[in-house]
Specification:
The complex is a heterotrimer.
Chain A: H1 2-28, H2 35-40, H3 46-56, H4 62-75, H5 89-124, H6 129-143, H7 146-160, H8 182-215, H9 219-226, H10 231-262, H11 264-270, H12 275-284, H13 288-316, H14 318-323
Helix pairs in contact in A: 1-13, 5-6, 5-8, 5-10, 6-8, 7-8, 7-11, 8-10, 9-10, 10-13, 11-12, 12-13
Chain B: E1 11-22, E2 25-37, E3 42-46, H1 53-61, E4 69-77, E5 80-81, H2 87-93, E6 98-101, H3 115-126, H4 131-144, H5 150-153, H6 163-175, E7 181-185, H7 193-209, E8 213-218, H8 221-227, E9 230-235, E10 238-244, H9 245-250, H10 255-262, E11 314-317, E12 320-322
Parallel strand pairs in B: 3-8, 3-9, 6-7, 7-8
Antiparallel strand pairs in B: 1-2, 1-4, 4-5, 9-10, 10-12, 11-12
Helix pairs in contact in B: 3-4, 3-6, 4-6
Chain C: H1 13-25, H2 27-44, H3 46-54, E1 66-69, E2 72-75, E3 77-79, E4 88-90, H4 110-146, H5 148-163, H6 166-180, E5 182-184, E6 187-189, H7 195-221, H8 224-231, H9 236-272, H10 284-292, H11 300-327
Antiparallel strand pairs in C: 1-2, 3-4, 5-6
Helix pairs in contact in C: 1-11, 2-4, 2-11, 3-4, 4-5, 4-7, 4-9, 4-10, 5-7, 6-7, 7-9, 8-9, 9-10, 9-11, 10-11
Classes of the chains: A mainly alpha, B alpha/beta, C mainly alpha.
């Protein structure tokens, strides 16, 4: 029991190290310009350049640079933005995280509920027009760029039809902290939730349907039917429950990636000051330390979330439990 | 057949046909199968893979729902036609009056629930039982099936049990509601030989302990000889021969039955260098001959075998009928030499 | 019986021909193909459209220009509708051949830019998908076929890349190359070269495509005809070329359209974040970005390129589904 756990821990640590090395390589060892110039920002003064070179050790070998970088990110947490007059990066990310978490959690609830409903209904009515209609709908959802959908939805709810009864409740773009006003928080996020969920509803309903259809051909489903169970019970208690194993593992990955900054485009379009929009602002000012920090934090988050997903897997699939 | 017995048989199947339509073409899988099973009788349904044994069982259970499949004929079970019952009533019957166990116990349990949960589920669907009562009954059943430490085993997942234990649990689940008919589809094929013998022993004892009749589907003549009261030999979706196991093994009248029996290694006497084998393979349903389906592989084929329709049934003894032209033409096969019934035991 | 290497499965006409037949019976796949062909054709005609139909240069700012509409000379930048007529907005859809869909904030013809942008978007997504498949093929086949250390290193590398959110990974790569391009030895790739987004997008999707390939190769490696070829002493590179590659090619082909769809979405997102295609060149993503500020006054600027993206991505997805059914490959791109 201890050995597999240790092995898993070892893997996690390895992946964490690998990611940090990868991100470091992308930002500081990509052939091209001097990393000092990248950090210091556009048209930096020579003194700034010199200071940056000292601070990050760009005159020293790569492994030392890597060590300095990791120290600044995770231990002293004093990575500072040069483009933004020395604002400390890590606290900035911590302030933005709750916004992203609110956005992604709400969207996740919507997409899980909707995609399970759509996938199950489509599988139950396999090959009928209901099935085909739902799956085309899912495909359309997958095909819409989220930032464009956000703009179109804004056009409808904020501008063209804002004055009708349907959308008059929609507040202006932006975020309201939950602690300030729970109802304001909710209203401000409803539309972004739905927009962010659209693509995932498409992906997950299609995957769930395919899995369910495959599972419904398995021997144990035949046993369940031979037991005299109702078709609904066979589909939900035996089919869906088994299909959920794949579903949950995918969900863990996507949820983690979104919280880690994958919701950037949605945050930008709806003006939500989350981690993603922080990255976006850093993009516009070419603020490399900030971007690198967000990418690094998101990767760490994804790896930790994956470890959690593995735990959930253990809970959901008894077969994995014994293999260890 | 058993037509003259006073009480109607438990299950009487008449002219069961299963066919499916593919690209406008009707392909017959099973043609005109008739048989009956009496109370506490064990009937063996024998045939090669693809002969339609499993399809027959699935059709009886109403488990065939693939698009384009047609099932015709009748299957009277205690006065009700299984093939004509509305879904809901058939479902109430399934698992309670007629239960089924499957070939591969590896894949026949839902992997994410414990064995006990799955047996409880069947009990609670058909009977008004509390969770606790259901589990008590489950443990009792598992114990009766010879599962060691039943209370703990009930809490284990299918993958944690050996094949033999899983099949015992499967039988426990099938018997949980005291069904009067148990359909067993190759229950021992996936198990190793010693476990196979134990499971067959268990099945033989069912009629005394549970009063159940069994429809045993197998491709193994040895299993039939050991277990079944009567036997029905299927070939390419049609009945070749049917009769009591004793008669059929002593005097096989269909060349196919005779060939099947000849391919069992003898238990005593000199061992042959090579077991006799039937040349060729069974025809695909689409290429089934219009006359006798076995004709292309038969050593006795002659002109009367070939034209449609297939040979009619010919009664050669009490309850012993055969779909072959030989007895009617006055040239029946000779009785089998050697032991009169079973090659084993 | 000995299995001679000549008995091993070949890229014979069989599977491909039957796949083509079943694809030709698939009406929605055919319709998607027609839509794609139409859009590609239209984009290819972009210069012709700009010069001979719209008579504009969609890469030059034309804020002070005028056009003739219904015999009247009209300003391209027009006063706003607000009571004080404060500020200027570009002209909206005109319904005539010039400025069919209106102008952007620099007075450039949206329809013409849409066609030119389509060229870039389609070129980038297509090349990225092809490049990604090639890289994934190489990585997946080497990992799966050689196993051992090669597999471990490559698989771990894929795991690591997999853990970074795709868009963040692409953004990171874009932001470091966008400032000063790439300099590898004597080769210099300028920041506005289309190769940069192509390589970046291809790179970030490699793990998605390489995993299923690796799985397929591992299954094939244990197949009997490969064992037979090994026993006969057929050189490894020959086994890879003659036995593995043809059998993996169906997996790769099926992923093609789906990858191109993902690449198109990624390209438009990067361009929308202004780190993809660089001005004055256009892509559907940059036009949506141009339209962002005009969304309430001239929504067509952003809506038109978005619709183009949706149409192409949807068509590609349907085509990919059709291909998958025709070649009978299970969808493994999103699973382990």
């Amino acid at each position: 029991m201890i050995m597999p756990l240790l092995r898993r821990l070892g893997q996690t640590v390895f992946v964490l190290f690998g990611i940090s090395a990868l991100v470091f390589t992308v930002f500081f060892a990509t052939p091209g310009a001097d990393p000092t110039a990248r950090i210091a920002g556009r048209n930096a003064a020579p003194q700034t350049m010199e200071k940056v070179r000292k601070e990050y050790g760009f005159d020293r070998p790569l492994p030392v640079q890597y060590a300095i970088m990791m120290k600044k990110l995770f231990i002293t947490r004093d990575l500072a933005s040069y483009a933004n007059r020395g604002e400390l990066v890590v606290p900035e990310i911590m302030r933005a995280a709750p916004v992203t978490l609110s956005l992604v959690t709400g969207a996740a609830i919507i997409w899980v509920v909707l995609s399970i409903a759509m996938g199950v209904i489509a599988a139950a009515f396999k090959d009928s027009w209901i099935d085909r209609g739902l799956m085309i709908l899912g495909l359309v959802g997958i095909s819409i760029p989220v930032f464009w959908l956000g703009q179109v939805v804004n056009l409808i709810t904020q501008n063209r039809y804002h004055d009708t009864w349907l959308f008059s409740w929609v507040p202006g773009l932006g975020y309201v902290p939950f602690s300030q006003s729970p109802s304001g928080w909710f209203l401000a996020l409803v539309i972004p939730w739905c927009v962010l969920a659209v693509m995932f509803v498409g992906i997950y309903s299609r995957i769930l349907r395919a899995d369910l259809v495959a599972i419904m051909g398995e021997d144990f489903i035949r046993t369940a039917r031979a037991k005299g169970l109702s078709p609904t019970r066979v589909l939900l208690r035996h089919g869906l429950r088994t299909a959920l194993i794949t579903f949950v593992s995918l969900f863990g990955m996507d949820f983690a990636q979104l919280v880690g900054g994958g919701a950037l485009l949605t945050e930008v379009v709806f003006g939500l000051p989350g981690v993603g929009r922080l990255t976006y602002q850093a993009l516009n000012s070419l603020d490399l330390p900030l971007i690198m920090a967000t990418v690094m934090y998101s990767a760490v988050f994804v790896v930790l979330a994956n470890a959690l997903v593995d735990a959930a897997y253990l809970f959901l699939d008894p077969r994995v439990r014994d293999v260890g | 057949m058993l037509a003259n017995t006073p009480a109607p048989p438990l299950l009487e199947v008449r002219d069961l046909c299963v066919s499916f339509t593919s690209r406008g073409q009707v392909i017959p899988i099973v043609e005109n199968i008739s048989f009956s099973i009496g109370d506490r009788e064990i009937l063996g349904l024998v045939g090669e893979s693809g002969s339609g044994k499993s399809i027959t069982a699935m059709a009886l259970m109403g488990l065939i729902d693939a698009p384009g499949v047609h099932v015709t004929g009748s299957a009277r079970f205690r006065g009700r036609d299984l093939l004509a019952l509305p879904d809901r009533q058939l479902r109430a019957l399934r698992g309670r009056e007629v239960a089924m166990i499957f070939q591969d116990p590896m894949t026949a349990f839902t992997p994410v629930y414990t064995i006990g949960w799955q047996i409880d589920e069947q009990l609670r669907v058909h009977q008004r039982l509390s969770r606790r009562q259901a589990r008590a009954r489950t443990v009792e059943l598992l114990g009766e099936m010879g599962v060691p430490d039943p209370a703990n085993t009930a809490n284990r997942y299918p993958h944690q049990l050996s094949g033999g234990l899983r099949q015992r649990a499967m039988i426990a689940m099938a018997l949980s509601c005291n069904p009067s008919l148990l359909i067993a589809d190759e229950p021992t094929t996936a198990l190793d030989v010693t476990v196979q013998a134990q499971i067959l022993e268990l099945m033989r004892n069912l009629r005394t302990t549970y009063g159940s009749s069994v429809l045993l589907i197998t491709h193994d003549m040895g299993v039939v000889a050991e277990t079944c009261d009567s036997t029905l030999v299927l070939y390419s979706g049609r009945v070749a021969e049917t009769g009591t196991t004793r008669d059929l093994f002593a005097h096989p009248q269909h060349p196919y039955t005779a060939a099947l029996l000849a391919s069992i290694p003898p238990m005593s006497g000199p061992r042959p260098d090579r077991l006799p084998a039937i040349p060729g393979g069974p025809p695909q349903p689409m290429e089934r001959p219009v006359g006798c389906a076995f004709a292309p592989r038969c050593a006795h084929t002659h002109a009367t075998c070939l034209p449609a329709p297939p040979p009619r049934f010919c009664t050669v003894g009490p309850g012993h009928t055969v779909a072959c032209v030989l007895p009617a033409e006055g040239a029946p096969l000779p009785p089998r030499s050697g032991s009169s019934t079973s090659p084993v035991l | 019986m000995m299995t001679k290497p000549s008995d091993t499965p070949r890229p014979s006409a069989g599977p491909w021909a039957s796949a083509l037949r079943s694809l030709l019976r698939n009406r929605s796949a055919l319709a998607s193909f027609a839509v794609l062909a139409l859009i590609v054709l239209a984009c290819l005609c972009a210069p012709f459209y700009a010069h001979h139909i719209a008579h504009t240069d969609p890469f030059v700012s034309n804020v002070a220009g005028t056009i003739v509409l219904n015999g009247q000379e009209t300003d391209i930048m027009q006063p706003n509708d607000n009571p004080l007529h404060l500020g200027l907005s570009p002209i909206g859809p005109t319904g005539s051949t010039t400025y069919l869909l209106g102008a952007d904030s620099q007075g450039r013809d949206i329809m013409a830019r849409l066609l030119y942008g389509g060229r870039n978007s389609l070129l980038i997504s297509f090349s990225a998908a092809v490049l990604c498949l090639v890289m994934a093929g190489v990585v997946g086949i080497s990992a799966g076929f050689f196993g051992g250390i090669t597999d471990m290193v490559l698989s771990r590398l894929m795991d690591i890349m997999w853990a970074v959110p795709v868009y963040l990974f692409a953004i990171s790569l874009s932001i470091v190359t966008i400032t000063s391009g790439l300099r590898i030895g004597p080769f210099v790739i300028e920041a506005d070269n289309l190769l940069i987004p192509i390589v970046i997008i291809a790179l970030v999707y490699v793990p998605y495509a390489a995993r299923p390939v690796r799985g397929r190769v591992i299954a094939l490696r244990q197949a009997e005809f490969v064992t037979a070829a090994k026993c006969l002493g057929v050189p490894r590179w020959r086994i890879v070329l003659r036995d593995i590659l043809p059998n993996v090619s169906t997996t790769l082909v099926v992923m093609g359209p789906l990858l191109m769809a993902m690449a198109l979405l990624a390209e438009s997102a990067l361009s929308f974040l202004s780190i993809g295609v660089q001005a004055p060149a256009a892509s559907w993503g940059t036009i949506i970005l141009d339209g962002e500020g005009l969304i309430y006054t001239r929504p067509m600027v952003a809506i038109a390129p978005g619709l183009a993206i949706v149409a192409v991505v949807l068509a590609l997805n349907i085509l990919g589904d059709g291909l998958r059914d025709a070649l009978d490959v299970r969808d493994t791109s999103r699973r382990e």
